[in-house]
Amino acid sequence: MVDDSGLRALREAARLSPDNLPLRRHLAGLLLDKGYLAEAESEYRAALLLAPRDPGITAGLAEAFARQGAYGAALSALEPFLAEPGYPPRMGVIAARALLGEGDVAQAGFRYHEAVMRAPQAADPELAARLAAPAAAAAAAPAAAAAAAAPRAPQPVEGPAEPYEATDDRRSGVTFADVAGMEGVKEALRVKLLLPVRQPELFAAFGKRAGGGVLLYGPPGGGKTHLARAAAGELGASFVSVGLSDVLDMYVGQSERNLHNIFDAARRSRPCLLFFDEVDALAARRSDMRQAHNRQIVNQFLAELDGVDDRANEGVLVLAATNAPWYIDVAFRRPGRFDHLVFVPPPDLAARAAILRILCRDKPLAEMDFDAVAKATADYVGADLKGLVERAVEDKLRESIAAGRPVPLTTRDLLALTTSQRPSSVREWLATARNYVMHANDSGAWDELLPWVNRTW
Ligand code: ADP
After folding, report:
1. What is the CATH topology of the domain spanning 349-418?
2. Hey, which of 187, 215, 226, 390 would you mutate to test ligand 1's pocket, going by the most ligand atoms within 8 Å of its Cβ?
3. CA 320 to CA 140: how far, in whole Å?
4. Which tens digit of pLDDT belongs to each residue from 369-416?
5. pLDDT score at 245
6. pTM of the predicted structure, to 2 decimals
7. Ligand 1, closest atom to CA 218?
């Protein structure tokens, strides 16, 4: 029972206007802050009915769950968000608390560091201390969970870690022919990455040296990873895709060692294209970081990009992708590092039709009006179109099994799904980008975005 007159008054106000979302949100937040966890939970549940996918409310509910020891419920609430890159860092910290509660120390450490790298203000010293003392944390977790988690918890590493093995995707066969549209982006990659390797004499004649990296940025699902893979295929280079979990580690010093091993592995399998996804978490502004450990990771990354000498990274091309380029430390943009920023825009009408053609290439089609589907998918990015085609194919497969013969895909099948499948967040992304273009573009770094953010939808 809440013993606070201010809270009781707010609660009464919420009872009288149950659809007032800001009021409910405020009340739920206060209840959580004051530790009335069960009450906070029910307020957040009520608010969620008014705004079903609201990240702030979901995070609040998950926190209320986690603080009551309902770790599974907290993780289930967060799951849809955590599956997307660039999820709110606060959610990462709450997930870390819940994972630790369940005894999954390794995952908890990963989530925590990933979140705090992006948003230092989300740091939770108490949680960080528990993560740094895994034995104590595991002992504090319920016995069964701790026992189950024990074999998965990483051991502190004394010497160098296991060398990183490069996955050689040379035979994946993806090239620029598999990337629809994006002519400007492909051209930029050709000039920066491919030509110096193919025609080194020409570049040498102009006093230019192959090297340095490219930072691809744009809305999630826009095809950055696909482009990077295709660039490696174009070049006949091995493709090493590095995710955050390959680098970040809860033990001090280990993340730096992981980075070093990754670059070393790439240097051993030249020509090699090293691709860092979600690089904002590894290359965030050091001025934003409170923890020296995180600054160390950034410094190590810079040192690896520079190499010990001029030739250290010869034949190693570095591509990185981010949905949030504005969080990246400017030191990464210096010559020889990610000195080339390339915007991967959302696909326009012609590009969407071309992407659909590629996605439907090997599918049984009755007829397909790609232009009509492209028109009906205005806010879709490549990943959304891929999801649309995959869902339609699954439906057809079921129909074919029932009919006992292959039933081909039609325009209507795809059009019908566009009404139920919501595209991902291109508009939200452009709204965020607009803030940076308008208010933090002194260096002109975001000029390329200008025509996009001023577009009226
Ligand atoms: P990002 O890395 O920007 O989040 P992805 O590269 O993972 O996006 O894109 C998701 C999927 O969308 C890819 O696997 C690919 O199948 C499809 N896709 C995106 N853009 C294109 C494109 N221009 N041409 C063909 N397929 C594309």
Report:
1. Helicase, Ruva Protein; domain 3 (1.10.8)
2. 226
3. 39
4. 999 999 999 989 999 999 999 999 999 889 888 888 888 999 999 999
5. 81
6. 0.65
7. 3
Ligand 1 — pocket residues by CB below 6 A? 179-182, 220-226, 321, 355, 358, 382-383, 386
Lowest-pLDDT range of 34-38, 332-336, 373-377, 426-430: 332-336
Place of tokens 């102009």: 206
How many Cβ atoms sit within 10 Å of the Cβ of residue 91?
23
Residue extents of the structural domains in the chain:
5-142, 176-343, 349-418
Question: Angle 204-207-211 (CA atoms, 0-180°, nearest 5)?
Answer: 75
What are 175's two structure tokens?
């090239």
**CATH number belonging to the domain at 176-343, selected among 3.40.50.300, 3.40.50.2300, 3.20.20.100, 3.40.395.10:** 3.40.50.300
Number of C-beta neighbours around residue 99 at 10 A: 25
Q: What is the mean pLDDT of the chain?
A: 82
> Which of 153, 58, 61, 45 shows the shortest CA–CA distance to 99?
153
Beta bridge partners of 238: 272
Number of Cβ within a 10 Å radius of residue 443: 9
Distance from the alpha carbon of residue 99 to the mean position of ligand 1, in angstroms: 31
**Opening angle at CA 395, ends 390 and 396, nearest 5:** 95
